[in-house]
Design goal:
Structural class: mainly beta
Number of domains: 1
Number of helices: 1
Helix content: under 10%
CATH topology: Immunoglobulin-like
Largest sheet: 6 strands, antiparallel
Length: 131
């Protein structure tokens, strides 16, 4: 499994990611949730700590090799803010993915760490943090 960066640069409130099956076999019962672990708003001198809220959840009964599914994380971030027009947000989160290879009865769990980063042209993007 692999997660790509945000599909909508500079739009942290409606952030969408792409989860792809990089393996040679299909996986089953795929669920992906967003776990916001840090959210700083520099202009307000505010820090919002960890949250265990995972809305919304993205799921697929089966994800074939080289296929992708979309993970929506914007509501998980927006639920921590009162002003959705904040242009600069320093944040970190995990995209938590569980899935089951066909021959196993239990689910595997992977966490993909992500953080916001400002590019040279001033655009805010989500970027993978090396595991």
């Amino acid at each position: 499994m692999d997660v790509s960066g945000s599909l909508r640069p500079n739009d942290l409130m409606t952030t969408m990611f792409s989860l792809s099956n990089e393996g040679p076999l299909p996986v089953y019962d795929v669920k992906a949730v967003c776990e916001v672990i840090r959210l700083d708003i520099p202009s307000r001198d505010r820090h919002l700590g960890p949250t265990r809220a995972y809305p919304p959840e993205s799921s697929a009964e089966i994800l074939f090799p080289a296929h992708k599914m979309t993970i929506a994380c914007g509501r998980a971030i927006a639920s921590k803010l009162d002003n959705m027009e904040t242009p600069e947000i320093d944040a970190e989160m995990f995209i938590v993915v569980s899935y089951r290879p066909k021959w196993l009865l239990w689910h595997k769990l992977e966490k993909f760490p992500m953080k916001t980063e400002k590019t040279n042209n001033g655009t805010w993007i989500w970027k993978s943090i090396p595991r």
